[in-house]
Amino acid sequence: MFDKIGVIGGGMIGGVLCQEIPKRRLARTLALVDIAPPDMAKGKCLDIAAGSSVVGFDASYDAGKGYEVLKDCQLIINTAGVPRKPKPDGTLPTREELLSINLRITNAVGEGINENCPKAIVISIANPLDAIVYRLSQILGRNRDTLFGMAGVLDSARYRYFVAEAAGVSVENVEALVLGGHGDTMVPIRSACRIAGMPVNLFLNDETLTAIENRTRKAGGEVVKLLGTGSAFVSPAWSALEMAEAIIYDKKKVLAVSARCEGEYGVDGLFLGVPAIVGASGMEKVIEIPLTEGEKKLLGVSIEAVKKTAAEVDSIVASL
Ligand code: APR
Predict the structure, then answer these.
(1) 2-149 against 152-319: fold identical
(2) Which whole-number Å values give the CA distances from 173 to 49, 160, 161, 176, in the listed order?
(3) Which of 17, 34, 69, 104 to mutate to test the pocket of ligand 1 (most atoms within 8 A of CB)?
(4) Which atom of ligand 1 is nearest to the CA of 36?
(5) Rounded to whole angstroms, what are the CA distances from 231 to 223, 251, 273?
(6) Which pLDDT tens digits describe the chain residue by residue (320 residues)?
(7) Which end of the chain lies in a sparser environment, N or C, as judged by fewer CB atoms within 10 Å?
(8) Domain positions in the chain
(9) Architecture in CATH of 2-149
């Protein structure tokens, strides 16, 4: 158990995190910051606290609109951002407009962390994932072990679920990895997919696996379309909590995370979805795995997309 964990952004994903953190007894104090008026963060925490006697957990809460509630947090999970929705004039913001709004928010988030809990390990979920975690790393100026992004756990979980469903086996039997950027170029690694330790090809043919991999790449969009408003929120929160538990309990768990590569996979200084060991000090080691020629090629395409996003961030930040 940690003394204090902070959640930045108490919307759909942040809301699940705030329920689960005290319920799973991950922290004695839960901090929540959200700028939404009149004081949404306080309201969410009061709601959870009011139900705590029914579920049976004790926790204290530090919630509000200002980042000072994050004082002395040991772990931060960042979900702050705005989704793509029509502007007051009815038109949709361009990708660039949306990115610049979210980068402004990220600037405030980074400063809030630096001022109040500079030693906290930071897991960032906010989208566009690759851009936000890259910008946060510029502001926080940390070693790579204490700042990383959550995308790979979720993308891999989706792949695992689709494989389990098609093979007619338990999701618990399926191991899978999705690497690269968190977008259409992500790379499900078929050569690393196993069912109870056996190669996935023993259970599913190439055609089925290709369809599953394509569905995995677009799984976030599939949920968006079905929900009507908003995006997936339960599975992203659970995925971030798997990372948080690996840190809190020093599990040394191998997870796909968005980590700043320092030479691994031929990438230097950019965040890429890679397998890594996650433990008490955060992202402790990036693991380089052998890939097939086809997978290497796809990862190359994904790396190019991540590089393009980073260049876009640099140019927008320079103009803010
Ligand atoms: N500081 C703190 N909170 C902020 C800030 C800020 N500067 N700006 C916005 N927020 C809050 C909003 O008020 C909102 O409550 O962030 C919250 C985001 O919540 P939702 O809009 O419900 O989004 P959610 O579905 O939770 O997703 C959060 O994770 O997966 C990504 O694409 C997703 O970027 C999005 C993020």
Answers:
(1) no
(2) 36, 9, 10, 10
(3) 34
(4) 13
(5) 6, 30, 21
(6) 999 999 999 999 999 999 999 999 999 999 999 999 999 999 999 999 999 999 999 999 999 999 999 999 999 999 999 877 777 887 777 767 889 999 999 999 999 999 999 999 999 999 989 899 999 999 999 899 999 999 999 999 999 999 999 999 999 999 999 999 988 899 999 999 999 999 999 999 999 999 999 999 999 989 988 988 888 999 999 999 999 999 999 999 999 999 999 999 999 999 999 999 999 999 999 999 999 999 999 999 999 999 999 999 999 999 88
(7) C
(8) 2-149, 152-319
(9) 3-Layer(aba) Sandwich (3.40)
Give me the residue label for tokens 């969410």. 44
Distance separating alpha carbons of residues 39 and 69, to the nearest angstrom:
13
For residue 270, give the nearest of 97, 138, 177 by alpha carbon. Answer: 138
Which positions are annotated as active-site residues? 182
Question: How many A from CA of 73 to the centre of ligand 1?
Answer: 19
Three-class SS state of 87: coil
Which residues' Cβ are closer than 6 Å to ligand 1?
A: 8-14, 33-36, 79-83, 105, 108, 125-127, 230-231, 233, 236
Could you tell me the distance, in angstroms and rounded to a whole number, from the CA of residue 102 to the centre of ligand 1? 9
| Spacing, Cα 236 to ligand 1 middle (Å) | 13
**Ligand 1 atom 10: residue of nearest CA:** 80
Nearest CA to ligand 1 atom 19: 11
pTM of this structure: 0.96
Which architecture does CATH list for 152-319?
A: Alpha-Beta Complex (3.90)
Residue nearest to atom 22 of ligand 1 (CA): 11
**What's the CA-to-centroid distance between 235 and ligand 1, angstroms?**
15
